[in-house]
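quick one
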Amino acid sequence: MPKVWIEKILDKPELYLLRVDDNQIKYFEATWEIPEGITYNAYLLKLENAVVLFDAWKKDYTKEFIEALSKLVDPKEITHIVVHHTEPDHSGALSEVLRLNCYRAQIIGTSFAKRLLEAFYGSKAVENFYTIKDGEEMKIGGKTFRFITVPWLHWPDTMITYIVEEGLMFSCDAGGGYSIPKTIDDSDEEVVQEYLPYVTKYIVTVIGHYHKYIVQNIEKLKKLGIIEKTKMILPGHGLIWRKNPKRIFEHYEAVGAGVPKRGKVLVIYDSMYGFVEKAIEIALDELKKHGYIPVVYRFTDKEAPAVSDILGEVPDSEALIIGASTYEANIHPRVRYVLYEIVDKANYEKPVLILGAYGWAGVAGREIETMIMRSKFDHVDTIEARGNATEEDEERIRESVRKLIQKLGK
Ligand code: FEO
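structure w/ MU-OXO-diiron:
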């Protein structure tokens, strides 16, 4: 059974985390492999004459959410519900909360959120909806709530709430990540180190298509002076950031900008009968000779890595090497899908070398080249061998790796 956490985060004002550890999920958004699971975080703030709920959980956990919430408050006493983002992993349990609340609470969100809530849960869900304007401030229970829109983090509806007097930032998807951390916050460095790669994987798979908005929205928060003043970041997934709140946005910024880790080259290939693998092994040898650290994902008749894991490796790679067989006059289907997703979700200005093998006609290389040329990636070279790479092919491959390294300026 998924674990439910009801944790007091602050005494004054009284702030609680309601977290469920979804260890049943296999594919986030019915697509991304996450054997590591995910958490859904909601928050309850008790103020003078006001009880504010920030978001909820996925519909599957409605019963557990109501049970947890009812341990802290009678749902009828909730005066405000802030809906930062309507994706149903945060809003699925809301209908039941509203019903138990007898539709008394004021729902606060963006105009997009109103439209989507109505589409998902019917007109009753938005009967008592207040539409905020970007930057609007509202006094609730004696505190100043500032609402700031952060469109495309992760949907156009998305906003954050900043409580001015307390320096609390409720950030929903922004600042979140996959996996089920052992702790609720960033106090344990070992937990943080284990968690951050899952944050990267989450950013790329969920928000990656809009990654330029990550950088833009964080810039916006910086200009407003909010990140400087924030004492705690309370996201809708994963760890709360209170030891070092700035750290999670620094991580988001680095992923959004595709800041590379020195020496890391991501190598992705398929090999049906070992011919592409031979070409790749030559490239790996040349890379290592020059001090590079290849991170390798391969599709063979014995293994098929998770595409979501591959995507999570792109942002901090210096360069990519793609190896593919020609398959029915196209790119091998596994590599074709990975590439499609890389270009869609992790489209960065990084050099790419294409290697391949074919039987009667080489087509994969040309097709990959076309995809790369249309993206932000920088095509370096394409070398394809007919079947087993010959000595001459080997020299061409080594030369192309050296060309790739030159691009990296070392
Ligand atoms: Fe966690 Fe975009 O929902």
